Amino acid sequence: MLTERELTVLELLPSLLSLDEIATDLTLSVNTVNSDVRSIYATLGVSSRRTAVRSDHEHGMLEHRRDRAERQPRPPFSSGPARCDPALAQGWPLAGEGLDDLRC
Asked: How far apart are CA 44 and CA 2, in angstroms?
């Protein structure tokens, strides 16, 4: 079974992105991505990007992940800007330090 991060890396393997670019996109170190790729290969019993992607297509791991994500309840949509509670803002440590515009 692959971790969520490994599934995210696997999702990007078919792209033309290098592992450095994948690391940048995911805000991870390249060593972390390399480790995830090695783990993906070991779990799937493959030795290349191409065979990892083929294995995913055959077993549908990413499809199952997408199906699970679609079934997850989503937070309610907020129809307006975030509101500030003036009572809470009075205790902000930054108040009075030239950042009064951050107050309500």
From this structure: 9
Concatenate the DSSP letters of all residues of 56-79 into one string: HHHHTHHHHHHHHHHHSPPPPPP-
Tokens (6 digits) for 100: 């009064």
- Yes or no: say if 95 and 89 are a contact pair by the CB < 8 Å rule: yes
Report the distance separating Cα 98 and Cα 92, nearest Å.
Answer: 13
CA distance 90 to 87: 6
pTM comes to 0.62
Domains and their CATH numbers in the chain: 4-70 (1.10.10.10)
| pLDDT digits 0-9 by tens, 25-62 | 999 999 999 999 999 999 999 999 999 999 988 888 77
